[in-house]
Design goal:
Blueprint: E1 4-8, H1 12-22, H2 31-43, E2 53-58, H3 60-64, H4 67-73, E3 77-81, H5 97-106, E4 111-117, H6 124-140, E5 144-150, H7 158-173, E6 180-185, E7 202-208, H8 214-221, E8 227-228, H9 232-235, H10 244-261
Helix pairs in contact: 1-2, 6-7, 8-10
Length: 265
């Protein structure tokens, strides 16, 4: 059993879906207020502790609202989502990486996260080159970069893209000088990414849930040597109209399932 990283970094574009699954009505004007209240409710859960959760990835809006000191008090390390989304090819859209790094450091955060999307093998090396170029800059700023080249779980080429990613990553890891975290889609092949631990700069390899249900994500994760950084699978079954007791029981159940499935060296 391993602690895991809670992904709580929904941006303005994805927050609507989060609130709809949560059963919370919202408007464009109040949706960030609503999702922040949901996140606070999760963090206030008795099971949301550093015995179970090592870190949390946050969106800048959540940091602005004072989440970092709350997590720090619980002994949970905060990471900042710094990207501004992806273009049609899955590459990171332009964003102010230096400004975001300075913001993270100013707010007592230990690292950052960037998410790209690998849709075709044609763009795989372009995406990795971009991710690792930014990661080098971030590491030089004294932060731990979370490199996230996601492969969509509904991709018809998912197994092939995963094999290609596993073969490509060593080229970039062998040149990377500092510590990083890899955040990857749970692969179809058991233990596909285990050999990446041979690189001393890989602090952790964590899995994203990518739209899998909690049970499916955890069942798949048990056949990998990976930690977890789940979002949807962490908040599954949480509803705005639940009593605090119902909410806390369900979240605690999700946390224990994820913790039991997660592992890393």
């Amino acid at each position: 059993m391993s602690k895991f990283i809670a992904a709580m970094d929904h941006s303005g574009g994805s927050t609507g879906g989060v609130l709809e699954r949560y059963g919370e009505e919202y408007t464009e004007d109040n949706k960030m207020d609503k999702v922040h209240s949901m996140r606070l409710r999760m963090v206030d859960c008795p099971a949301f502790t550093n015995n179970n959760i090592s870190g949390a990835i946050l969106y800048k809006d959540t940091v602005d609202r004072g989440m970092v000191p709350i997590l720090r008090k619980k002994g949970i390390s905060p990471y900042l989502k710094i990207d501004s989304g992806c273009d049609d090819a899955g590459m990171l859209k332009p964003f102010g990486v230096e400004d975001m790094c300075n913001y993270a450091r100013a707010h007592n955060m230990i690292g950052t996260k960037m998410r790209s999307i690998i849709k075709t093998e044609r763009w795989l090396h372009h995406i990795l080159e971009q991710q690792f170029r930014f990661a080098s800059f971030i590491a030089d700023k004294g932060l731990i970069p979370i490199v996230e080249p996601e492969i969509p779980i509904d991709s018809k080429d998912k197994p092939h893209l995963e094999d290609a990613l596993a073969k490509a990553l060593p080229t970039y890891l062998s040149k990377f000088k500092k510590s990083l975290i890899l955040k990857l889609t749970i692969p179809e092949k058991p233990y596909l990414y285990s050999s990446l631990y041979l690189y001393n700069n890989v602090a952790k390899i964590v899995a994203l849930s990518g739209g899998y249900s909690t049970d499916d994500a955890c069942a798949k994760l048990k056949h990998q040597n990976m930690g977890a950084s789940f979002s949807r699978a962490l908040s599954e079954g949480l509803y705005a109209d639940q009593t605090d007791n119902q909410f806390n029981i369900k979240l605690a159940d999700n946390i224990q399932k994820i913790k039991a499935a997660a592992s890393w060296r």
